[in-house]
Amino acid sequence: MISALSILLLASTAASRDITFPPVAGYQSPMMHLSGDESLDITGAKFAGLTTFANLPYVHCLDQEGFEKYDIAILGAPFDTGVTARPGARFGPNGIRAGSRRIHPDSAWSIYNGKNVLKEWATIVDCGDAPLTVLDNTVALKQLDMAHKIISSRSTNTTDYIVPRLVTLGGDHTTTLSALRSTFKHWGAVSVIHFDSHIDTWDPEVLGGGVSHYAGVNHGTFLHIAHEEGLIKNTSI
């Protein structure tokens, strides 16, 4: 037999599920709609969906038949087998993207100039990571060279530039060699401003131990190799 107390408890439980939210003061995200379930928008959640840099749109930039235009492309280079110690930078692109998830194109306003830096003039996309083998450094760098070539050969969305700009998320410093090779094809030799506790200009015969050409291409020799290939100017610092 159901007692009056049980009926009262059941009624209270049912009533407690029907929650009415009070008005929310302060800033409200445009994706939050509390008026009714039918208008609930979940398309702009920062911590859902694909993890891209600053929640920028993902584009399969390496698709040879792709026609989507962009001005700035984010490319991950998960490569760390060119180091002499402390591997782990292959997880760098993923870590950088995860650390940027609170940034969103709709709210990327600069406090210095009052402009939305992700929407001001450029179409910015995240191309994901270049598919790099972890078993052969020579092949991996050729794969990265090809990724740079494909992405930088696309048409831009703006008329101010004809070559898309690439921002590479490393990866150890060896990946810079592919970026310099790609840059050289469009603009010739450039001056490099290099921030590091090491100058990374070791002679491959020294840091590579003279064992093989394969061993000589690493994170401490890439600027030496770039100079030998004529990719950088003597004004680099």
TrEMBL record:
It comes from the Eukaryota. InterPro entries: Ureohydrolase, Ureohydrolase_dom_sf. GO terms for biological process: putrescine biosynthetic process from arginine, via agmatine. Residues 1-16 form the signal peptide. GO terms for molecular function: agmatinase activity; metal ion binding. Keywords: Signal. Coiled coil: none annotated. Belongs to the arginase family. PANTHER family: ARGINASE/AGMATINASE, HYPOTHETICAL ARGINASE FAMILY PROTEIN (EUROFUNG). This is Arginase/deacetylase. It comes from Aureobasidium melanogenum. The lineage of its organism: Eukaryota, Fungi, Dikarya, Ascomycota, Pezizomycotina.
